[in-house]
Design brief:
The complex is a heterotrimer of chains A (275), B (273) and C (275).
Chain A (H helix, E strand, L loop, with lengths): L16 H24 L10 H11 L9 H33 L1 H14 L7 H9 L3 H26 L2 H9 L4 H39 L5 H10 L3 H34 L6
Helix pairs in contact in A: 2-10, 3-4, 3-6, 3-8, 3-9, 5-6, 6-8, 7-8, 8-9, 8-10, 9-10
Chain B lengths: L1 H32 L11 H11 L8 H33 L1 H14 L8 H8 L3 H27 L2 H8 L4 H39 L5 H10 L3 H35 L10
Helix pairs in contact in B: 2-10, 3-4, 3-6, 3-8, 3-9, 5-6, 6-8, 7-8, 8-9, 8-10, 9-10
Chain C lengths: L1 H7 L3 H4 L6 E12 L2 E12 L3 E5 L6 H9 L6 E6 L2 E2 L7 E5 L10 H5 L1 H5 L4 H14 L15 H14 L4 E5 L7 H18 L2 E6 L2 H7 L2 E5 L6 E6 L11 H27 L1
Parallel strand pairs in C: 3-8, 3-9, 6-7, 7-8
Antiparallel strand pairs in C: 1-2, 1-4, 4-5, 9-10
Helix pairs in contact in C: 1-8, 6-7, 7-8, 9-10
The chains are: A mainly alpha (275), B mainly alpha (273), C alpha/beta (275).
């Protein structure tokens, strides 16, 4: 079999240099002005330590001389573990509930009202309740992540099913597909772009909720815990370093991980996700 | 007759909507009564209701709940107002000048994955616990949705309407007054709705971390130290109910009066943190 | 068009002229949605290897009829039979091609076409073997690994046709198959479809609103009236295949069908105004 795909247009534009220059310059100017202001005493170097000092502190805490050694790496690892566990749980349960709402009458009747009743509760309001149930434990933060991520996933799975025309099911039916085959060959791949969109938004909410939950409920480690803990010692460099790490990690998760996932599915298939 | 049917139909729909929720509450109640669930951790809905009645002052005790609600609402609204005051002009600026937007967007995208609550430690060092810290945190939570919606609204206007007014001899002020503001108003209202929702949702966490004596978040977190679970649940339900009232009643009415009338379509909804 | 020569040398086409058995029988079939009658008293016999076109004013329920024969919708009165047995559900014996193609964006051209055999439980290699024949005949060679989003409308419709034919149906149901194509593309796909029909020796039922398409391709043209639609005329196009669009005799048939159709449209409009 000859597989000749040379005819298919593949868009690969070279990165415009401005796209790289702009962030470097704009962040450089921001940090540069801050550095100068802190060094000259225009702003308090204690409350706003110069970025160079923040980066230096960050560098030390990522090495064996940190307190604790490799502290920031441990914090990152633990935060990522909690995020992954909670989002994984949300992905599985959210997809199942979404399918139940989208495909079955009883699922719609039971889950829709319950979800609309739970959704207005601010995610972080669950934290004290969960603290009572689980105590200061990873389960508390993981559950907060789960709650933060699952609504968006459920909502998008349901939208994905609603966006499918009945003719898609008809094509499968005319091939003699069973219910299970229709689910496997049509529904699951069909909702995947929506699931990924839901995941993207869900992870965004979850990351922010996790940091806040760690501030309220983590016993040790985790980026949220770290910045809150540093506040007790007025360790401003650690707080700024932690905030910077939270922001960069959040960007990496969204652009890197989810972006790669989108490239391999939504973009490759050329589908539009309407929300 | 048709009107009668409509009422019946609506009533049936409400019942069908409430049925699963009531069912869940019933299962919960029974689980507590039969000892399946620990009342110390998960009080029965009836216990929570009784506590709510107490906190509302209906039993003659001091109506503490109202105080907390008012304190929370005040902070959330001040933060929201600040977010509008900052977010809308900035949104117009960044929406009108593509160049400015391109240069600022790296900073914005670095701020976006940060929960507003992450700024609390710095603010606690700067200002200590109290209203100022809480309001700033809520402001940081609310300002980005307002900013982004405004930016999108201004951007979506396009150049042709501006050219139309320009060709009629309109000034820059005319363009702003007669084109940009009206055309971006739906997006602005959506942004306000999201901003208020974010302000309210951020508030709980901020109050848990930084409130001294009042607010629903404070009430919930304080109740935790006394293991007063019923009060915690009352607080959670209040947060949800007020959030819904703000979103559906306040902004719902506003949208109905504006966006729906002008465009005969649904505005984008949603937005949580 | 080397395909055509190969196809024409195929002896199957010649036997088609021997008295064929009835394939689809409609006995007073009617379909109503609530109080709206879409199709009424539809009675006809479509024989094996016959190419029948259904034409009618837009909104007359011709597609509804096709969906009922496919088994997607149920008749509310009368009977529709295939091979003497009443139609109860969709099945691989009746392949369908929609105007909107309804391809699965997450599957490559090849995997779209092999879906039918895959659902039937055939091993991948065997499914691809079967698909290859139709990929060749529809002129899709070289595009096997492309995703549908990268294809033009004409190519998409070829994939949909190949996908339906790979299920090896006895009957091919075409729902306005050229409706979404531009004129140039349409002429090509139409020509190929005629060749395919001769090669595949299938019974084809095509719904269209274009007199030109119907007369060029079909052995018989069933003209449906405005809603509630019943057959107002059954025109036999007695010309050999493949036909030349510029043939004088074809022009006369075209005129005949057009006259009946426009009389029907006039009648419907007057009826509407009279009410």
């Amino acid at each position: 079999m000859t597989l000749d795909t040379a005819e298919i247009p593949r868009r690969r534009l070279p990165l415009p240099p401005m796209k790289l220059i702009r962030p470097v310059v704009s962040l450089g100017v921001l940090f540069g002005l801050w550095e100068i202001a802190a060094r000259t005493g225009a702003i308090s170097a204690f409350l706003f330590p110069p970025p160079s000092a923040i980066f230096a502190a960050l560098w030390i805490s990522a090495g064996p001389n940190g307190d604790p050694p490799y502290g920031i790496l441990l914090d990152i690892a633990l935060s990522l573990y909690r995020l992954l566990a909670g989002v994984g749980l949300a992905l599985v349960l959210g997809t199942i509930i979404g399918l139940a709402i989208g495909l079955t009458g009883w699922g719609r009747a039971v889950f829709k009202p319950i979800i609309s009743a739970l959704m207005p509760i601010p995610t972080l309001a669950w934290t004290p309740v969960l603290l009572l149930v689980f105590g200061i434990d990873n389960r508390t933060t993981i559950t907060v992540v789960f709650i933060a991520a699952s609504f968006e996933i459920i909502y998008n799975v349901v939208t994905g099913i609603e966006m499918m025309t009945r003719k898609v099911y008809w094509v499968a039916a005319s091939m003699g597909a069973s219910r299970l085959q229709t689910l496997r060959y049509v529904v699951l791949p069909g909702i995947l772009p929506y699931l990924i969109t839901g995941l993207k938004l869900g992870v965004g909410y979850a990351w922010r909720a996790l940091i806040a939950a760690e501030m309220l409920a983590a016993s040790s480690h985790g980026l949220g815990f770290m910045i809150y803990d540093a506040q007790e010692y007025m360790d401003m460099k650690s707080i700024y370093g932690g905030i910077l790490t939270i922001s960069v990690m959040g960007l990496l998760i969204e652009r890197g991980v989810i972006g790669a996932l989108e490239k391999r599915t939504i973009e490759k298939w050329g589908v539009n996700v309407e929300r | 007759m048709p009107i009668g049917f409509q009422i019946l139909d609506r009533a049936l729909r409400v019942i069908r909507f409430l049925l699963p929720i009531l069912g869940l509450l019933l299962v919960w109640e029974l689980a507590v009564r039969t000892g399946l669930a620990q009342a110390g951790i998960l009080p029965a809905p009836s216990t929570i209701l009784a506590r709510a009645v107490e906190l509302l002052g209906l039993t003659g005790e001091r109506a503490v709940l109202f105080g907390h609600i008012l304190a929370s609402l005040r902070r959330a609204l001040i933060a929201f107002a600040l977010a509008v005051a900052v977010g809308v002009p900035l949104g117009f600026l960044l929406g009108l000048s593509e160049e400015a937007q391109l240069w600022v967007s790296p900073i914005l995208s670095l701020m976006l994955p940060l929960p507003a609550v992450a700024w609390t430690p710095i603010l606690l060092v700067l200002f200590g616990p109290g209203d100022l810290t809480i309001v700033i945190v809520c402001f940081l939570g609310a300002v980005f949705p307002v900013l982004y919606s405004t930016m999108q609204g201004v951007r979506a206007c396009g150049r042709q309407p501006v050219w139309v007014v320009r060709s009629m001899g309109g000034s820059g002020l005319d363009v702003l007054r007669r084109v940009l503001i009206p055309s971006s108003l739906p997006a602005l209202i959506t942004g306000f709705k999201l901003g208020m929702a974010h302000s309210w949702r951020t508030l709980v966490a901020a109050e848990m971390l930084a409130a001294l004596t009042s607010g629903l978040g404070y009430m919930i977190f304080a109740a935790r130290s006394y293991m007063d679970v019923s009060t915690m649940f009352v607080g959670v339900v209040c947060l949800a109910a007020i959030g819904m009232l703000i979103e559906h009643v306040l902004f719902g009415t506003l949208e109905h009066a504006t966006i729906h009338r002008w465009y005969a379509r649904d505005a984008q909804t949603g937005g949580r943190q | 068009m080397s395909n055509v020569e190969k196809i024409l040398s195929d002896p199957v086409g010649e036997t088609a002229t021997l008295a064929p058995k009835p394939k689809i029988t409609a006995e007073g079939a009617g379909i109503r949605f609530g109080s709206i009658v879409a199709v009424e008293d539809f009675t006809t016999v479509i024989r094996e290897r016959e190419f029948v076109s259904i034409i009618g004013p837009s909104g007359c329920g011709k597609s509804t009829l096709l969906y009922a024969i496919a088994g997607f919708l149920k008749t509310t009165s009368g009977v529709l039979k295939v091979d003497g047995k009443p139609i109860v559900k969709p099945g691989p014996d009746r392949g369908i091609v929609f105007q909107e193609f309804v391809l699965f964006p997450w599957r490559t051209v090849l995997r779209n076409i092999t879906l039918g055999p895959e659902i039937a439980g055939l091993p991948r290699a065997e499914a691809e073997e079967r698909a290859r024949k139709w990929i060749r005949l529809t002129g899709l060679g070289g595009f096997e690994n492309a995703y549908p989003a990268t294809l033009s409308g004409g190519m998409k419709q070829r994939v949909a046709i190949a996908r339906a034919l790979t299920c090896e149906p006895d009957i091919l149901l075409l729902d306005e198959p050229f409706g979404a194509l531009d004129v140039q593309t349409k002429n090509y796909v139409m020509k190929d479809l005629q060749d395919l029909w001769i090669a595949a020796s299938k019974t084809i039922l095509m719904v269209t609103h274009s007199v030109q398409e119907a007369t060029l391709m079909a052995d018989r043209v069933l003209i449906l009236g405005a809603r509630p639609s019943r057959i107002v005329a059954d025109v036999r196009i007695d010309l050999p295949h493949p036909r030349d669009p510029l043939d004088q005799r074809l022009g006369r048939y075209r005129q005949e069908v057009t006259e009946i159709l426009s009389a029907e449209v006039d009648r419907a409009m007057k009826g509407e105004r009279g009410q």
